[in-house]
Design a protein that fits this description.
Two copies of one chain form a homodimer. With about 375 residues, chain A is of the alpha/beta class. Helix content of chain A is about 35%, strand content about 15%. In chain A, helix 4 packs parallel to helix 5.
Chain lengths: ~375, ~375
C-alpha cells in the first residue's frame, strides 16, 4: 500500500488512537565503510579497500521508482533509512508509535561464501547500531544480526548482546537456509535462553518453487512461499517441540496464505505423522501459539475480508503491525488496516499482540 | 482424505446422485517393457535391455504404506493402476462416473537429460494408451503426454494426436520448468489450435521455496507452491493474453491458497504492471476465467468453510472433482465433498465445471 499525505488530526484514519508498535523498520548505514572501526583485521582492511562485493539484488530493477519511498532519502544524498531524524519525522513522531523495532537492511545470512566475514560484519553492524540508533530514542528497540550459516559464531553473538534491555529479537533472513535443519538448532537454544524472538524476514535471496522467475513481480508475488517452507521446516524438524518457549515473527511475507497452510499441514500430519514422531502436536497448534505475522504487506482487502480470515483462523492474536519503512510498499497505519475493524481488534493489531510477543510493558497513555 | 468402505446404496453419501467426471485417474503400464513395440531404435533397445534408469522418487518412502491404496494392486502383482477391470470395479462402476480423464503416472517432462528419448517415450506411451485403455470403455477420456523440454517435438505430438475425439488435454508435470517462459509457448499455441486443455499436475520433481526439505511430509505440504509459481509465471509472461482461448486445469495441487494468491497478485499488478505491459488484465481476471482446480486433495474442512472460501473467491466455477485413483490420498466422492454443500454447487463440482472445461456433452441420465 503506497503512502499518501497524512493529516495529523487523524493519525490512524479511524477511531483507533492508541499506541502503535512498528515491528519492521529498515534502518541502514549511510556508508558501509563506517563499519570499519568496529571490525578487526583482516575484515577492516577488506572494507576500507572496498574489496567487499556486498550481496546484490538479483533483479535489474525493483519497482519502477526503486525499492524505497521517494520521500525517504535524506537531503544529504545518503541512503533511505540511514537518517534517524527523517525516520523520526516520517514515522516515530507522525504516528503514535510507542515502540519501533529495527530489522535492518543488512542480512549477513545471505552471504553464501566466506562465512567468517559474515559473522564479523554482523558483530560490527550490531555495535554500530547500538551506538548510532539505540542511543537516540527510547522508543527504538532492535533485532540483532547474526550469520546463521555459522551457528557457533551466531551463538557467541547472542551471548554477547542478547541480554541488552533494548534487544528483543534475532533477525534471520528468509533465503535458501531451511532453519528447521538441526544444524541451526544451537541458535534457537540460545534465543530461548535469552528470551529473544526469532524474526524471520524475507530477503531478495528467497526464491519461489521455480526460482525467481523472469520478472520482479513474479519474484515478489511468490515471496510468501519462503515463509511457508520455513514454517514447514521448523515444525517438521521439531523446533517447536524442542524449544517450547521460543516465539517467532514472520515479517514482510504476508499472512492470508496461513489458513491454507494450516489446513493442509494438519491434514498431512494426521496421515503422515509416523514420519516425524518427535512432533507431538498438530502443526496448527504449534504455529498459532508461537508465531506472529507482521501485517505489512497485507493485501488490499476490506474489513469484512479481514474478519472472515480471522474467523477462518480462529484467533485475532496473530497479527503485529509493521510499516516496512522506508520501502516502496510502506504501510501507513491509517491506510493499511481497514477502518471498519472493531476497536478491540485494532488494539490487538497495532499494539497488544506485539507487546505480548516481545514482552514489553503495558503502554502508558501516549 | 483416506478412503473407507462405500455402501452402494448411497454412492455419493449425500443427496447428489447426478453424474460425475473424475478429472485425475493415474493409469499406468504393468511393465515399461511393454512400450518396446511402440518405439523405434535406438530407444527400443534401451528399453529391452533395461538400460532406462527411469526417474526415481527423491524420498526413501512416501506414506508409510506406500504411494497407492492398499487395495488397488491387481492379484497378478502388477502395479496399482495398471488394471482396467480393477479400476472399473473400484471407480467407474462404483460411483456414477460419466467420464474419467486419464492423467498417467508417466511424466516425460521430468526427464532432465536426453530429451529425444523423453519425446520418443511420450509418443510410445500415447500409442500404448490408445490401444490398451481408450478402446476399453467409452467413459474413458485421456490426456496425451509430451516432453515439454523439447517444445518442437511436443508440438509434433500434439499435431499427431490432438484431434482424436477422446483426447481432451495435454498433461504437463509441475516440476522445475516455468512454462510461462516463451521457450514453451509453441506448446500453448498448438494446444489452443486443437482446443485442448493444459493439465498441470504436480510431480515428485516439484520443489518448495527451500527445496524438498528433509521429510516427505515437508515436501508434500509445500507441493502447492509449484502451482502458485506456475500460475505466476504463466500470467506474467503473457500466456493468458497471447492465447485467449486456452484453458488450464491445476491438478492435485490444492486450491485453498487461491484467495491469497489472487489478492497478492492483483495488488502487485496494480503497483508493478509497468514491468509487464503485455498483461492487459488483472491476474485474478485471467485466472478465474481460464483456470480450474481439481478438488483432490481438498483439506478436511466442513461445508461452511468451503462456502466461505467460495464467497471469498466470488465464484463456484473453479472446482472440478477428482479421485486421484489409485493413490493413497484417494478422494471418494461421498467423503471428500462435504454433504452440507448446496445441490447446485455439488452439481458444479462433480460434473458441470469439468463438462464446460473439457467441452463435453450434457449428461444423459446416469
Amino acid at each position: 500500500m503506497v503512502t499518501t499525505p497524512i493529516t495529523a488530526a487523524s493519525p490512524t484514519g479511524s477511531s483507533y488512537t492508541g499506541p502503535i508498535i512498528d515491528t519492521d523498520v529498515h534502518e541502514t548505514i549511510s556508508s558501509w565503510k563506517h563499519l570499519a572501526p568496529y571490525l578487526g583485521e583482516p575484515w577492516r582492511g577488506l572494507l576500507e579497500r572496498g574489496a567487499w562485493t556486498k550481496p546484490g539484488a538479483p533483479f535489474a530493477y525493483w519497482a519502477s521508482h526503486g525499492v524505497n519511498r521517494a520521500d525517504s532519502f535524506p537531503d544529504s544524498g545518503a541512503p533511505a533509512g540511514s537518517n534517524y531524524e527523517l525516520f523520526k519525522a516520517q514515522v516515530l513522531d507522525l504516528y503514535p508509535i510507542k515502540y519501533a523495532i529495527l530489522t535492518g537492511q543488512f542480512m549477513p545470512g545471505i552471504m553464501e561464501m566466506q562465512f567468517e566475514f559474515a559473522s564479523a560484519l554482523a558483530s560490527a553492524y550490531n555495535d554500530w547500531l547500538f551506538e548510532h540508533w539505540l542511543q537516540k530514542d527510547e522508543r527504538i528497540l532492535t533485532s540483532i544480526h547474526v550469520a546463521p550459516q555459522d551457528p557457533q559464531a551466531a551463538v557467541r553473538e547472542i551471548e554477547r548482546l542478547g541480554d541488552h534491555p533494548r534487544v528483543v529479537q534475532i533477525i534471520l533472513p528468509i533465503a535458501q537456509l531451511a532453519y528447521g535443519d538441526p544444524f541451526y538448532h544451537p541458535i534457537f537454544e540460545a534465543a530461548q535462553r535469552h528470551n529473544l524472538v526469532i524474526g524471520l524476514h524475507h530477503s531478495s535471496f528467497v526464491k519461489g518453487a521455480m526460482g525467481r522467475g523472469r520478472y520482479y513481480i513474479e519474484w515478489h508475488v511468490n515471496v510468501p512461499q519462503g515463509a511457508m517452507s520455513l514454517l514447514t521446516s521448523l515444525v517438521c524438524n521439531g523446533v517447536f517441540d524442542k524449544y517450547p518457549n521460543l516465539k517467532f515473527n514472520i515479517i514482510e511475507s504476508g499472512w492470508s496464505w496461513l489458513p491454507h497452510l494450516l489446513w493442509r499441514f494438519d491434514q498431512n500430519y494426521r496421515s503422515l505423522q509416523q514420519e516425524i514422531p518427535w512432533v507431538k502436536r498438530l502443526p496448527s497448534e504449534h504455529i498459532l501459539e508461537r508465531v506472529k505475522f507482521s501485517t505489512q504487506p497485507t493485501e488490499d482487502f476490506d474489513a469484512q475480508t479481514w474478519l472472515r480470515l480471522i474467523e477462518l483462523l480462529g484467533t485475532d492474536r496473530l497479527f503485529v503491525f509493521a510499516t516496512d519503512y522506508p520501502h516502496w510498499d510502506f504501510d501507513a497505519p491509517n491506510e493499511a488496516i481497514p477502518r471498519g475493524l472493531p476497536a478491540a481488534l485494532k488494539s490487538r493489531i497495532f499494539y497488544e499482540n506485539a507487546r505480548e510477543l516481545y514482552g514489553l510493558e503495558q503502554a502508558r497513555s501516549v
